[in-house]
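Q: Convert this sequence to structure tokens.
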Amino acid sequence: MEEPGESTSNVVRGDVHGNVVQAGSVGHVHLSEVHHHEAVQPDFRAEGERALDRKDYETAIAQLGQARRAAADPELDFLCALALLRGRRPHRVRSNRELTAVRDGLRRVVLLPHARLLLLLIDEDRGRCWERGGGVSELVPALVAATEPEQVRRILDHLSAPENRVWQLLAAAHRGWETGR
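A:
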């Protein structure tokens, strides 16, 4: 507020982008030191994972896609593949292009045990292999044992395929972890 007889000609007005950490006046001049900071960048991965947990697949695809463009992280390829399935069993995915995108993403990160399991589950389900009988690859139980329980839970939360033998092994492992067996 201007006192009678004071002039506002020395007042500089503007926006502050940062935190004012020191301020004071010398005569009619107001001085301050501003520490500038970067604008907060959105955490696309965290937003994508939250959307995936809510089964908001379109948002998850968009957010995880942004995260993939910003950082090379194999886990993002797995999460994107899971989101691209949109909660559908692989043999019910009508678009070959979508399923090819899912499989290609998983092939890029096939060294992750849970990505390999999801790829095997997709192949088993797409070919409806359980109808022909026989066993699953000996690799599957070893991959299940090498996979973190959280990743198994994530796959089971987004895909329900009770006839699928890979899915059955994942479900059995999940039940075992829950019951402590």
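The radius of gyration is 27 Å.
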